[in-house]
């Protein structure tokens, strides 16, 4: 079958260079996991020492000047992400914004849509509104089982494990 | 709204992620998913473990992005995956390596005649031969000949010297020839 052994290795290489099908849901799982990174996408940021001191000073001023900010301090900043390359617009809608598409429009970078929302502890239902007409549940989150509106939606629980 | 078709560079995307634009990271994930996935599948030999390693690589990379030279994101990502595959490979070594073809490919082979059946058989033969290689040889062979990296780049990723890497690749080729020659006579 093989007269020249080097040719066999070249055939192996050609075989191994063929594309391998990777689960297309992997992108959504990655984005969901990193969105849960404490501190959101800024959790890894390295601040110079002086900048940390300055930020602490500014934070102290804000907390003193605006007592309501203390309430916001307990809220978590959550990143919501949807991979939708064909979409022209996507909005995040849910219990937290009265299901109003105008309040949480999502930004896109080559088909990956994202937005961040600060949420106080609690359980929320939400969905993505694609192109202003199509409701989509979050493929990377549990579905809401008690959706009385008949459209797909998902559930996020803040201040504990997401469910 | 028009879809932006201008591809951003890795460095630009990394800068955007660092500035808080998480969606830019999604672009990097989709850009590198298939190529890194191919390496992981061949190196680990089990699709489920490979995808888990790939997902973990992207998440670890995101969390350590501050340590990345933005201009070398791709190489840096490869380095994380290579290490992750080593860990997974060692853990999975006791388990039987299993190769599962796409259901469509299998189904198709039943109807497509001998050509496609031969291709699947050859694919199986290659997978099994690769699995028999010493992991260090397999790693060097895949990075050099399948991922098409230069020895200098592989040395940086693996921490091995260039001479050692050339020897590993040479041994891998010899072993593959031997394994396939034996398979021919079975």
What keyword list fits this structure?
A: 163 residues, alpha+beta, Immunoglobulin-like, four-stranded antiparallel sheet, three-stranded antiparallel sheet, 4 helices, B: 186 residues, mainly alpha, Rna Polymerase Sigma Factor, Chain: A, 9 helices
List the SSEs and their pairings.
The complex is a heterodimer of chains A (163) and B (186).
Chain A: H1 5-16, H2 26-35, H3 49-65, H4 69-73, E1 76-83, E2 90-94, E3 107-109, E4 112-119, E5 122-130, E6 134-136, E7 154-158
Antiparallel strand pairs in A: 1-4, 2-5, 3-4, 5-6, 5-7
Chain B: H1 10-18, H2 22-44, H3 47-63, H4 73-92, H5 103-111, H6 114-132, H7 135-146, H8 151-158, H9 162-185
Helix pairs in contact in B: 1-2, 2-3, 2-4, 3-4, 4-8, 5-6, 6-9, 7-9
Tell me what the structure shows.
The complex is a heterodimer of chains A (163) and B (186). Helices cover 27% and strands 25% of the residues of chain A. By secondary structure, chain A is of the alpha+beta class. In chain A, the strands form two sheets. In chain A, strands 2, 5, 6 and 7 form a four-stranded antiparallel β-sheet that branches. A three-stranded antiparallel β-sheet of chain A has the order 1-4-3. The N and C termini of chain A lie far apart (57 Å). Chain B has a domain at 1-98: RNA polymerase sigma factor, region 2, helix turn helix motif (Rna Polymerase Sigma Factor, Chain: A), CATH 1.10.1740. Chain B has helices at residues 10-18, 22-44, 47-63, 73-92, 103-111, 114-132, 135-146, 151-158, 162-185. Classes of the chains: A alpha+beta (163), B mainly alpha (186). At the A-B interface, helix 1, helix 2, strand 1, strand 3 and strand 4 of A face helix 1, helix 2, helix 3, helix 6 and helix 7 of B.
Distance between the termini of chain A: 57 Å
Instruction: Provide the helix percentage of chain B.
Output: over 70%
What's the helix-strand series of chain B?
HHHHHHHHH
Class by alpha and beta content of chain B: mainly alpha
Which percent range describes the beta-strand content of chain A?
Answer: 25-35%
Which percent range describes the beta-strand content of chain B? Answer: under 5%
Q: Catalogue the unreliable spans of chain B.
A: 1-6, 94-110
Q: Could you say which overall geometry of chain B the principal axes of the C-alpha atoms support?
A: globular
Mean pLDDT of chain A, to the nearest integer, reads 72
Instruction: Please tally the helical runs of chain B, counting DSSP H or I stretches of 4 or more residues.
Output: 9
Compute the separation of the termini of chain B in Å: 61 Å
What is the ordering of alpha helices and beta strands of chain A? HHHHEEEEEEE
Helix content estimate of chain A: 25-40%
| Rg calculated over all Cα atoms of chain A | 22 Å
CATH names the topology of chain A as: Immunoglobulin-like
**Structural class label of chain A:** alpha+beta
Based on Cα principal axes, name the global outline of chain A. Answer: elongated
Q: Based on DSSP secondary structure assignment, what is the total number of beta strands of chain B?
A: 0
């Amino acid at each position: 079958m093989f007269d020249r052994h080097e040719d066999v290795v070249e055939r192996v290489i050609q075989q191994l260079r063929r594309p391998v099908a990777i689960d297309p849901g992997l992108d959504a799982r990655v984005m969901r996991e990193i969105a849960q990174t404490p501190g959101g996408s800024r959790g890894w940021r390295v601040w110079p020492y002086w900048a940390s001191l300055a930020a602490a000073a500014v934070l102290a001023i804000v907390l003193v000047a605006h007592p309501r900010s203390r309430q916001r301090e307990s809220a978590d900043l959550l990143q919501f992400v949807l991979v939708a390359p064909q979409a022209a617009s996507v909005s995040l809608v849910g219990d937290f914004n009265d299901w109003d598409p105008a309040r949480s429009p999502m930004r896109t970078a080559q088909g990956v849509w994202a937005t961040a929302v600060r949420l106080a502890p609690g359980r929320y239902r939400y969905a993505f509104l694609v192109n202003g007409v199509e409701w989509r549940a979050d493929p990377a989150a549990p579905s809401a089982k008690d959706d009385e509106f008949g459209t797909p939606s998902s559930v996020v629980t803040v201040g504990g494990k997401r469910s | 709204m028009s879809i932006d078709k201008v591809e951003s560079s890795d460095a630009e995307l990394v800068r955007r992620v660092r500035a808080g634009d998480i969606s830019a990271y999604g672009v990097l994930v989709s850009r590198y998913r298939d190529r890194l996935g191919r390496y992981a599948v061949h190196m680990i030999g089990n699709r489920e473990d490979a995808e888990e390693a790939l997902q973990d690589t992207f998440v670890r990379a995101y969390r350590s992005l501050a340590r990345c030279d933005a201009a070398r994101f791709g190489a840096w990502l490869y380095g994380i995956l290579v290490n992750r595959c080593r860990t997974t490979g060692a853990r999975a070594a006791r388990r039987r390596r299993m190769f599962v073809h796409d259901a469509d490919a299998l189904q198709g082979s039943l109807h497509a005649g001998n050509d496609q059946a031969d291709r699947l058989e050859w694919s199986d033969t290659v997978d099994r031969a690769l699995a028999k290689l010493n992991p260090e040889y397999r790693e060097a062979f895949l990075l050099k000949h399948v991922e098409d990296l230069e020895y200098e780049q592989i040395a940086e990723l693996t921490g091995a010297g260039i001479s050692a890497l050339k020897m590993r690749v040479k041994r891998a080729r010899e072993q593959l020839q031997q394994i396939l020659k034996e398979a021919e006579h079975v």
